[in-house]
From TrEMBL:
SUPFAM superfamilies: HemD-like. It comes from Actinomyces urogenitalis DORA_12. This is Uroporphyrinogen III synthase HEM4. GO terms for biological process: uroporphyrinogen III biosynthetic process. Residues 131-290 form the Tetrapyrrole biosynthesis uroporphyrinogen III synthase domain. Residues 1-10 have a biased composition (Polar residues). Pfam families: HEM4. InterPro entries: 4pyrrol_syn_uPrphyn_synt_sf, 4pyrrol_synth_uPrphyn_synth, UROS/Hem4. Residues 1-23 are annotated as: Disordered. The lineage of its organism: Bacteria, Bacillati, Actinomycetota, Actinomycetes, Actinomycetales. GO terms for molecular function: uroporphyrinogen-III synthase activity.
Length: 304
């Protein structure tokens, strides 16, 4: 995936500044630090009147073959009682399609009488079928992507950060002895694994991918110059890696550009990268980002 800036489709109706109530971001230019087809974030902001440029600041790279294979082997063995997915990017490198709707695809076949005290039923050739693996996801986007792959809704959908998801998993019964597979980025904070281990769970982390800064050669011409010159009223950062990449590629945000982050982890990463965060989206959704942008930009003078 390469970094690119896109603007509203040719022929689209330009924002009408006279309809400020219906289009609270009319006349504003926003940089969205990711680039995805039919991105709901870009759509919602454009419907609110903003001119939105999307820029892929990072690229996803699979983890080592050994680490990805280890995660697949754990799933195939039926070891995890829970698989916890913290980013839709996990699904780009890890095949979770076998965790479907039937016990035959959900449960792992294991020889013997039991596995760590987990109840199981016998199958015809003397193996045991474990209960279906339960699924958890961070946020609605990851939950939707996980459901598309597995054909069933996650059992738990947590908030936008590790703390909220850990609490949701505890409420769902994760505790002493629960076996949890946590496939995630090599850059992920250890908070979720540590919280689950504090509950007594057996956690296997698998670094199945990592995120790296996009090559500078993939940036649009003079992007860094435009960035430092304050070409955007605001930038929306949906991941900590995007915050780090932006400062690496173009430097800190100018005073006239408000920085809005999607969740607490991206806020912390942005601050660590030297960015002054103006607002944190109240919910990790397009509507939450819109609300944060409206509140921040209301305090700024409108563009001439």
């Amino acid at each position: 995936m390469t970094a690119s800036v896109t603007t509203p489709p040719a022929g689209s109706t330009p924002p009408d500044p006279t309809h400020s109530a219906a289009q609270p971001l009319a006349g504003r230019r926003v940089l969205l630090g990711r680039s995805r087809p039919a991105d709901p974030f870009a759509r919602v902001l454009r419907e609110a009147g903003a001119e939105v440029d999307t820029l892929a600041l990072t690229v996803t790279s699979p983890g080592t073959p050994e680490e990805v294979e280890r995660a697949h082997a754990l799933i195939s063995s039926g070891w995890p009682q829970w698989v916890v997915v913290t980013s839709a990017q996990t699904l780009e490198v890890l095949d979770l399609s076998r965790l479907g709707t039937s016990e035959e695809t959900n449960g792992g076949a294991v020889r013997g009488d039991s596995q760590d005290g987990v109840s199981a039923r016998s199958c015809e050739d003397g193996c045991l079928l474990l209960p279906p693996t339960r699924l958890a996801a961070v946020g609605p986007r990851t939950a939707h992507a996980l459901a598309a792959v597995t054909g069933r809704q996650p059992d738990v959908v947590g908030g936008s950060d590790a703390e909220a998801l850990a609490q949701a998993l505890e409420e769902a019964g994760v505790g002493p002895g629960t076996r949890v597979l946590l496939p995630q980025s090599a850059l992920a904070r250890p908070v979720l694994a540590e919280r689950l281990e504090d509950l007594g769970a057996q956690v296997q982390r698998a670094a199945v991918y990592t995120t790296v800064t996009a090559p500078a050669s993939c940036l649009p011409p003079a992007f860094a110059t435009h960035w430092r010159g304050g070409a955007w009223d605001a930038v929306v950062l949906t991941a900590g890696s995007a915050a780090r990449a932006l400062t690496e590629l173009a430097g800190p945000a100018p005073a006239s550009t408000a920085v809005v982050t999607l969740g607490r982890p991206s806020q912390l990463a942005a601050q660590a990268a030297g960015l002054k965060v103006a607002a944190l989206a109240p919910t990790p959704t397009a509507e939450g980002v819109l609300k944060a942008l409206c509140q921040v930009l209301e305090r700024q003078a409108p563009p001439p």
